[in-house]
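Translate sequence into C-alpha cells.
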Amino acid sequence: MERSRPEQPWNPVENLPPREQAVERVVGLGVTPEVEGRIKQELRDKTFDHQTRRIGEIEKSAEEVEVIENVLAGLPDFISRYGGRPLPLTQEHFHSILTKDLPDFMRSYVDDFYGEYKDRMQDVRIYSEEKGADIPKTVLFGIMAHEAMHFNSFQSVQFFGGHTELRRIGMSPVSFRGSVGDAIDEAVTEELAMRYQHERLANLSDSDYEREQKLTDDLMPSARLDRPQDEVAAITGSGEALGDKDTKVYYFTYREERWRLNALLDDLVKERPDQFPDREAAFDMFARAYFTGNLLPLGRALGEAYGDKHALRRLMEGEDLTARKLGSKTIRQEPRVPS
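Result follows.
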C-alpha cells in the first residue's frame, strides 16, 4: 500500500471542486444534487463566511494571531496527504473567548476546555479565564491544530423538515457521540495534531518556540511527571526546581483514548503485516477515514483482523475490540506508568 509521506503529497479527490464550507455530504429523503448544492451554498453564505462576534469574544492577542497564522500555513498540505480536502480557513474562523464573560450555563460547559470546534457555527473557540492568559505558544499551537483538524474532518448532515442536523463528523456518527466511538475519533484528532505540531515546529524558525522547548528539555529530568516524557507538551516556570508554584506541566490530550487507538494499530500490524508494516501505516488508514468519510477500507481491515465483519460498528458502539480479542468484554486498561 502506498503511504503518505511529508515529501509526497497525495490527494485522491483532486478532481472534486474546492471545499468551500465544512459539510461535504447532505443526506435525507428527497435530497437531490440540486438540493444538496443549495444547502451547501447556504451553509457557506450564512455560516462559514458569516463569522460574527461571538458571546464573550475578545480581540485576539498578537501571540494568538501569530500562532493561528503558523497553524494555517502548513495545514492544507498536511491534510491533503491523508486524502482530505482542506478548507480555506482564515483568522476570522478562530474566536478568542473569555470564559468569565459567558452566561452561567455556557461557562459550566466549557470549564474543562481550552478549545472547541463548533460544527453548527463552523468556527473554532479558544477559551481563557482571563485576558492575556499566559499559555505557552507550543501548547496554544497544539490546541488550535487539534480543533482545526476537527474543522477539516469529514462532516455530513441530515436534511429533514426544512432544516439540517449533524449526522457525522470525522469517523463518528452523531448517535455514537460520547461513546468509545467518539473517543477513537478524538484519539485520531489528537494524533494528527501531534504529528502536525512536531513536523511544523521542527521546520519553523521562531525564538519563542525554541526557548519553550529548551526550558522543557532542561526541566524534564527533574520533573515529577504522572505520564511518560513523550506525553509532555511543555513545562513552564522559573527554570528552577520543579515544584515552584509558578511551574506547570502541560500534557498532550486524550492519552487513554490514544492508548486504545494504538492498541488497535498494533493488532492490525500483527494480523496484517503485508498491508500494515508498521503502526504509522495502520494509522494512515484511520486518518484517511477521518478526512474522507470513506470507512470501507477501515471496516474491512478491522473485520479481517478481528474475524468479525461488524468490527467497526462494534467499535463505534463502544466495544473494545482489543479486549474482545483477549476473551474479555471489559475495556483493556492502560498499563500503569512506572513511578
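Note: The beta strands are 25-27, 57-58, 94-98, 115-118, 123-128, 155-160, 163-169, 172-173, 232-236, 248-251.
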